């Protein structure tokens, strides 16, 4: 009876199974899933010659089946790499996207070496990938992360522990569709020692921005695994922008800046909403594909 299997042979078989089920990036997915199944610290490559136990081989084939049914690799692993760290995710959090790294990229270039202390607010924090990556990069900072979803705040706390950032973080359950949301944030800043003022120097936000009618058209990986509350932006995709922009100025210091991720086709609509609420569009930042992805406003 064979008790051990060669990693290269398993990879070849796994890739072929994923390919014939039309899974995109079959090589990468198979390598990650085999590494995860066998608890191997690094990613297993074709040239690695590793013995895989029967138990781990069975796990690998089980993961392949789940992947073929449409579950993203990050959901199988329960985590996703974002910027420079690995973030735990659960069924209540959005799977962090590389597009959102644009916010960190721009902010670290502008704020990293200033030496000043920054108070940061992350609206709709999810796994915490944006806010936590930021305060990890910009050392002299304190962060308030807020989300409507309690279970995503729990994961955010775990991620903050893993990154050793608990001493710079406070998080709270807040719903920006409630009239009192700004007031509630101000109360937190008054109570918590972490914050020295009730306004923020930097506000970041990746709100839900998919038009309700487009949700059905999303890929299975997104539609079936990302929570609806993190995707659905209402009829025109802009419900959350309207709710947040209305009184945003009340939360922003005089020289403060806000960075909002936007759907690549929403810019024209969002310009109108900014005007309505007397906010200035400073700059539009593009993502790696050249789409308008992040607006810088004050
Ligand atoms: C697109 S996800 C972004 C998550 C995370 N910032 C990221 O980039 O991966 C939007 C987040 O906003 C939160 N959210 C949705 N509606 C909200 C509301 N009314 N008030 C507060 N948070 C809300 C969702 O729970 C979700 O975590």
Total strand segments = 11
CATH topology assignment of the largest domain:
Rossmann fold
- Main beta sheet: 7 strands, mixed
CATH architecture of the largest domain: 3-Layer(aba) Sandwich
How far apart the termini lie comes to: 68 Å
Low-confidence stretches: none
Annotated CATH homologous superfamily of the largest domain: Vaccinia Virus protein VP39
| Mean pLDDT metric | 95
Question: What does this entry look like structurally?
Answer:
- With 298 residues, the chain is α/β, with parallel strands linked by helices.
- The protein is 37% helix and 20% strand.
- The protein has helices at 7-20, 26-37, 54-68, 73-77, 101-111, 129-137, 150-162, 181-191, 220-223, 239-245, 267-276; strands spanning 4-6, 51-53, 79-82, 85-88, 118-123, 141-147, 169-173, 200-205, 252-261, 281-286, 292-297.
- The strands form 3 sheets. The protein has a 7-stranded mixed β-sheet with strand order 7-6-5-8-9-11-10, with helices on both faces.
- β10 (281-286) and β11 form a beta hairpin.
- α1 (7-20) packs across α2, α1 (7-20) packs parallel to α3 (54-68) and α5 (101-111) runs parallel beside α6.
- S-adenosylmethionine binds at residues 94, 96, 100, 124-127, 129-130, 147-149, 152, 174-177, 206-208, 229-230.
């Amino acid at each position: 009876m064979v008790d051990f299997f060669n990693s290269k042979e398993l990879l070849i078989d796994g890739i072929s199974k994923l390919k014939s089920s039309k899974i995109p990036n079959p090589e990468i997915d198979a390598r990650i899933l085999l590494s995860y199944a066998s608890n191997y610290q690094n990613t297993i490559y074709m040239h690695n010659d590793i013995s895989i136990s029967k138990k781990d081989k069975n796990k690998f084939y089980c993961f392949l089946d789940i992947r073929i049914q449409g579950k993203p690799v990050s959901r199988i692993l329960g985590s996703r790499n974002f910027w420079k760290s690995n973030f735990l995710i659960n069924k209540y959090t959005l799977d962090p996207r590389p597009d959102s790294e644009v916010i960190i990229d721009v902010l670290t270039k502008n704020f990293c070496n200033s030496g000043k202390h920054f108070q940061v607010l992350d609206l709709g924090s999810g796994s915490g990938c944006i806010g936590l990556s930021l305060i990890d990069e910009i050392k002299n900072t304190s962060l308030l992360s807020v989300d409507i979803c309690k279970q995503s705040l729990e994961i955010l706390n775990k991620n903050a522990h893993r990154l050793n950032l608990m001493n710079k973080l406070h998080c709270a359950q807040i719903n920006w569709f409630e009239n009192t949301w700004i007031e509630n944030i101000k109360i937190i800043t008054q109570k918590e020692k972490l914050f020295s003022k009730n306004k923020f120097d930097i506000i970041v936000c990746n709100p839900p921005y998919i038009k309700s009618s487009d949700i059905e058209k999303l890929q299975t990986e997104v539609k079936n695994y990302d929570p609806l509350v993190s995707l659905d932006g209402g009829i025109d995709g802009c419900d959350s922008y309207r709710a947040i922009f209305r009184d945003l100025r009340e939360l922003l210091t005089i020289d403060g800046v806000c960075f909002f991720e936007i759907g690549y086709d929403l810019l024209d609509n969002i310009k109108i909403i900014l005007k309505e609420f007397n906010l200035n569009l400073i700059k539009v930042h593009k993502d790696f594909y050249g789409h308008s992805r992040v607006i810088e406003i004050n």
